[in-house]
Write a structure and sequence with these properties.
The chain is mainly α. It is 76% helix and 0% strand. The chain has eleven helices and no strands. α3 packs antiparallel against α4, α4 packs antiparallel against α5 and α9 packs antiparallel against α10. The protein starts with 8 loop residues before the first helix and ends with a helix.
Length: 355
Amino acid sequence: MNHIFSYAFRPLFFLATIYGIVSVAWWGLAWGGLAPFPGVIDNPLHWHAHEMIFGFAAAAIGGFALTAVANWTGRPPVSGLPVVALCVFWLSARLLAAGSNNTLLVPLAVADLGYDILLCALLAREVIAGNSRRNFKLIAILALLAAANGAFYHGQWQQTEWTGSALWAGLWLVVLLVNTIGGRVIPAFTGNWLALQARLHQRPQPVRPPGFGNIDLVASVATGCFALIFLWNPHSTATAVLGAVAALAQLIRWSRWQFYRTLGDPMMWVLHLAFLWIPIGLGLLSLAALDILPLSSGIHALTSGAVTTMVLAIASRAALGHSNRPLANHPLLTASYVGITVTTVLRIIASVSAD
């Protein structure tokens, strides 16, 4: 038991994986009339969106952040009772969210926000104690994510119109986290992998992918601005133009990371593939802003594509690396990478076909 809670990624990645499978299967069965929709959250679409963002993604974010912060700060990993408490909050919230009536809404909100607040507090403690100033922005994003979740529950309780806006805000904050973390680890991991391949095959050391620079800054700022204007008015020409600019900037940024050189290693190319869904999703949403495509096409490019693929890529690396096993791919891992990619493409096609 002590081993399970020695790193946050161990229980939280496991819970995220199981919940991702169970909740999506339940959603499909309920949509087909073969199972009831949960009744705590009054709108089934809101339940599905909330549980994917503040349930599945939030667990994966917690597992990654509290594991990586030890490397960022040089401090011991967060472990033991704080990790147990996080899992209790999270699991309680998911069980309550599966309830049949809205009398459970208040305890659900308490448990769910308890997870968000504790996660933010633990990360802030580690980052501040380690004086890791570059990660202060991650604390801010987690705090805003907790606020968006709180706004969602307040909207549910008061039956206000901002419930949907709170879900959109949560989605954009998760995308910004993927943008931040992916933009940091993908060029670094790729550079290290290319250097290792050069040594193993006795080749000259390659040119490493560039670190964070002006292009990365422009792409990140454009994406953040698009998220803000999208929350204000998702259907306008200005929104579409800014979305297209953000998509192009992210695509240019991604192209500099030498994806084509990683095709021999699934554990490398899946990281690049995960990030590629960000410009694709932004592009689809810019077309949706002009009512050319449905919003769900861009939503699922960002969620099933960028977020879920990145979670799968990071979780598989963490599970191997922190158990002192080589980062060697397995056929089942490759199958999972291909599977989530095919699923995302099919989901987007279904969205467009149903429009």
